[in-house]
Specification:
Length: 231
Amino acid sequence: MKPKKQDYKNIWKELGQDYKIHGPSSRHTRRILRKYLSLVDYSSIIDIGCGPGILLSTLDLKGKKFAGADLSESGIKFCKERWPKGNFRIIDIAKEAPKERYDVAVCSEVLEHIKDDLAAMKNLRKTCDNLVISVPAGKYSFSDHEMGHFRRYTKEDMISKLKKAGFKVVKCEYWGFPFYSPIYRFFLNNTKVKQRAGKVTIFKRIVSETLNIMFYLNIPNKGDRLFVLAR
């Protein structure tokens, strides 16, 4: 099944930011990314697929050189307005690497959207000394098609491709079972709740907070999300 075509240029105008800020899976993704970043000694960082900079806003950037790259004009515009001293550019990581090199790059929920993900990984190798990744894992589904995903990953797939790109995987773990998936995913797929759009109401905030707590109880290294640290 081919992925549904996405308008990445204007995607943040369509989605808004509420669901990314308050959504329990997004919050835990940022939490785990920060945990992986804590394993790296870095003074410079770039967020590949930064969107409007929600991950960067949760990091301690004091004294650090920081940057972001994205296909979204609206996302890059927002980042430039928020952080005038940051280096934010519209870049297709599958076709080019940023001109500057960084101690660490974060590439969260991006590679699954890229047809030639190996080309993107090779450009990431030119970009950073350390790489932190999050991607969907497990079985490809109709929701992946709707979100513009070309694939999901296994540990073996990811390690093999990163090796071809010149990386060595240091840490690679699944996450999400059972409360994110299948329980939360089943709820989203079988109700009229819109996961990726709209304002987060008070009711949704209460539900989100409850799920956020439950997600801490997921079984370690099991689930359909994959987090990676490579060097």
